[in-house]
Write a structure and sequence with these properties.
By secondary structure, the protein is α/β, with parallel strands linked by helices. The chain has helices spanning about 10-15, 20, 35-55, 65-80, 95-100, 120-125, 145-165, 185-190, 240-275, 305-315, 335, 340-345, 360-374; strands at about 60-65, 85-90, 105-110, 130-135, 170-175, 195-200, 210-215, 280-285, 295-300, 350. It has two domains: about 10-250, Aspartate Aminotransferase, domain 2 (3-Layer(aba) Sandwich); about 255-374, Aspartate Aminotransferase, domain 1, CATH 3.90.1150. It contains 13 helices and ten strands.
Length: about 375
């Protein structure tokens, strides 16, 4: 019940990667003919990702996961415009918040359901704002953000800047790491300039991912050296990871609608059973615009760490928040942003379902919670 933290690698993904571990091991940058196989595989993987996003291959930069892609987006823009500022939503992943804090950044508040407050977002954007970053779907409470509405707002601000002859660009980045399993990723429909993807969340290899960078945008690189990945990420490319990531993204998007419907049924069952059998338990986030695999609950009077250990003893693995910040003693910044106090935040758990999750598994979890809370 923690598939938001990690997913098992799909069989077809492992099969696609296999040749590039030992047989086609050549450096894609080498000039001899054997290396062309590695280079061709990398190009094909980039084309696969580009097709899903509805972009050109040159607009796809492979990274070692979502955190690196987020860092490249934030640092890449802000190092180019060091005298400008950025606005990020208050519920972003730490890999957006941490680099943003190194610059002149402003947090955009959300509603109690976790949705971005568009009026307050607009008020935070001034003439020197160069970047806005709002995640597509939240990794803790599953809230799906209205990216198209945000994009329309930014278009209006851009038009106003042109009239005032303000040459500062206004770029829109979204972290789509949790969204890729279930939501449309076509960037023209979303209206974004930069988009982060993470292979470890979509049944692909960990430490794989990509950043979409709209044509014409120039970012400062994180790693200097050989000039790979359009000069943004020097170092010999991990061909196997790129191939696996592309295969995972392609298959995930093919099955996303069917899997969304299946998980929505299980999600409704989970919420209904909890409401019927655990009347004091509270749901965090909205039920209307929510990832279909996400259930986030507050158990008043309970200690979430103790409850996690009790669940693990009966072979149920859940989470108290983002796996990336699980070692921190601080209450979740996401839960605080939606209005929960420290006590309620420390009484909350996240359950996230995946492809192997069954109706029987959901019933097992609710039964266990009823027994533990009795």
């Amino acid at each position: 019940m923690d598939y938001a933290a990690a997913t098992p690698m799909a069989d077809d993904v492992l099969t696609a990667m296999q040749p590039y571990f030992s047989e086609v091991f050549y450096n894609p940058s080498a000039t001899y003919l054997a290396a062309k196989k590695s280079r061709d595989a990398l190009n094909v993987a980039r084309q696969q990702v580009a097709k899903v996003l509805g972009v050109r291959p040159v607009e796809v930069t492979f990274t070692a996961g979502g955190s690196e892609a987020n860092n490249l987006a934030i640092h890449g823009v802000m190092r180019r415009y060091p005298d400008k500022n950025l606005v990020v939503s208050a519920v972003e992943h730490e890999s957006v918040l941490a680099p943003a804090q190194l610059y002149d950044s402003k947090p955009a508040p959300v509603t109690p359901n976790g949705l971005i407050d568009l009026q307050k977002l607009e008020a935070l954007i001034d003439d020197n704002t160069v970047l806005v970053s709002v995640m597509y779907a939240n990794n803790e409470i599953g809230t799906v953000q209205p990216l198209r509405k945000i994009a329309n707002l930014l278009d209006t601000i851009r038009a106003d800047r042109r009239q005032k002859d303000n040459q500062t660009p206004l770029l829109f980045h979204t972290d789509a790491a949790q969204a890729a399993n279930y939501l449309d990723l076509h960037v023209a429909r979303l209206g974004v300039d930069l988009l982060t993807l993470n292979g470890g969340k979509i049944y692909g290899p960990k430490q794989s991912g990509a950043l979409f960078i709209k044509a014409g945008l120039k970012l400062e690189p994180l790693v200097y050296g050989g000039g790979q990945e359009h000069g943004l990420r020097s170092g010999t490319e991990n061909v196997a990871a790129a191939v696996g990531f592309a295969a995972a993204l392609e298959s995930t998007q093919v099955m996303r609608q069917d899997e969304t419907k299946r998980l929505q049924t299980l999600q409704r069952q989970f919420f209904a059973d909890v409401a019927a059998r655990l009347s004091t338990v509270e749901v965090n986030g909205t039920k209307d615009t929510r990832l279909p695999n996400n259930i986030h609950l507050t158990f008043p009077g309970q200690d979430n760490e103790r409850l996690l250990l009790q669940l693990e003893q009966v072979n149920i693995l859940a989470a108290a928040g983002s796996a990336c910040s699980a070692s921190s003693d601080e209450p979740s910044h996401v839960l605080k942003a939606i209005g929960l106090d420290d006590v309620a935040a420390r009484s909350s758990l996240r359950f996230t379902m995946g492809r192997p999750t069954s109706k029987e598994a959901v019933s097992m979890v609710v039964d266990a919670l009823v027994q533990l809370l009795a």
